[in-house]
Amino acid sequence: MCRSIKPLRLPDRPATEQEIQEAALQYVRKVSGYRKPSKANEEAFQRAVDEVAEATRKMLEGLKSSRAESL
Fold it and tell me: Helices 17-32 and 39-62: crossing angle, nearest 10°?
């Protein structure tokens, strides 16, 4: 969907908070069609970024590594 969003599930380290926020921002920009929302849409835009980032954090925390399962 958006080539600038990079995979956050990395084999050598967990994603940083900044990486999660940047990916959420890119996703919301793509879906909304706004690079920067108007003042009237700013609150909804930022809320969407925060919610996508939170959902991403939860998903990454819930994913199990095949390496951990084999231990």
Answer: 130
The least confident of 10-19, 22-31, 43-52, 62-71 is 62-71
**Residues 45, 37 contacting (CB under 8 angstroms):** yes
What mean pLDDT is predicted for residues 26-34? 95
Instruction: Kindly tell me the sign of the dihedral angle through the C-alpha atoms of 40, 3, 13, 66.
Output: positive
Using only the alpha carbons of the chain, give its radius of gyration: 14
Ranges of H-type helices in the chain: 17-32, 39-62, 66-69
